[in-house]
Amino acid sequence: MTTVVPAQQSRGGGGTSGLYDVLELILDRGLVIDAFVRVSLVGIEILKIDVRIVVASVDTYLRFAEACNRLDLESGPNKSPGLPEVVEGITENGARSKTKGALSGAGETVSKAAQSVADAIRPAEEDEEEPRRRRPARKAAPKKSEESA
Amino acid sequence: MSTYVYGIARGEVTDLGDRLLGIGDPPLPVRALNEGDLAAIVSDCPPELKPRRRDLLAHQHVLAEVSDSHPVLPMRFGSVSSSDEDVRGVLAEHADRYHDQLNRLTDRVEYNVKAVHDENAVLHHVLAEEPELRAMAEANRAAGGGTYEERVRFGELVAGAVRAREVRDAKLVEEALAPAAEEVRPGPESGGWFLSLSLLLGKDAADPLLTAAADLEKTHPWLKLRVNGPLPPYSFVES
User: Fold this and answer.
1) Which of B118, B159, B187 lies at the smallest CB-CB distance from A106?
2) Which residue of A has its CA nearest to B64?
3) How many domains does chain B have?
4) ipTM of the shown complex
5) In angstroms, rounded to a whole number, what is the distance separating the alpha carbons of residues B44 and B4?
6) Residue B215: in which H helix or E strand, if any?
7) What is the pTM of this model?
8) Which residues form a coiled coil (chain A) (predicted)?
């Protein structure tokens, strides 16, 4: 996922950040004054995509089933459920690599959403700036997002 | 030429010179329109205003720079007035309202926190919590993954359990972080995370929030928090 760090972030101690994480605030919050025109921002509606729609799909169900199938069920769940140790145990039990890969689960959803945000922004940019430099990032974009954009 | 407005600052802003550049390509110089004890931070508006990455960052950057020396009410991106005179007129007309807000937000910054789940960790947690799901998972595995229908059905139940976990964790995160803030508001609804929370903090008072977030991740390893800030108090201005 492409991360653009807003200039301001470098001075804050607030952890890693990208434009996508603050984008909605710049576009959706902030003072609105009736006497001023708010320029209609084509493509911004896509930011409102509810990822629940994506989550509630057969693809997701199959992915969850698959992921559960891969999980090492023997490494902790027999302990009292609901405690953090359950998962910590897993991590320590050498399933670390699996847990890492897990980010491709929730993380994937995140980066897909971020990607559709990116696509919402990018077409406007591509009209007139640096088409060459954009190409690699474009390549990395999931095809689906492009189609739905 | 129309006027693009970044924000409304308190006090006379005289020191922008040519050093601060705003939106547009090439970036347009930012200037201050002083009216009474308020100043609108503006630049010319480019002919075609679009939410380009660069322009969003420029909007953000201008607000960050000015807020170093003056309390500022951030405008939403894309606010345009027909002329400098009109902007001055708005400042004069609503001066009291803006002063009230500036007083409230002086030396305050916004932090935004987004929460996501580490998928494998949360799946493991869900299976550990719900014996029925765990039994299904074991049966499916014994059957080499199960049939397509079994996998869809099982996955749907798991998705429901994960969603329930998201609701609980959203509450958990909010309750854990809110004490570190003066004020808390939900972030705009959007995708990619199950919770977006904006917190209003004193300018140099982020440590309790960052500590609370780190502690939460430590005790709940399936939680991933992304903390962004300090930001102009976008979520705490009243239009």
Assistant:
1) B118
2) A8
3) 2
4) 0.84
5) 6
6) helix B207-219
7) 0.73
8) none
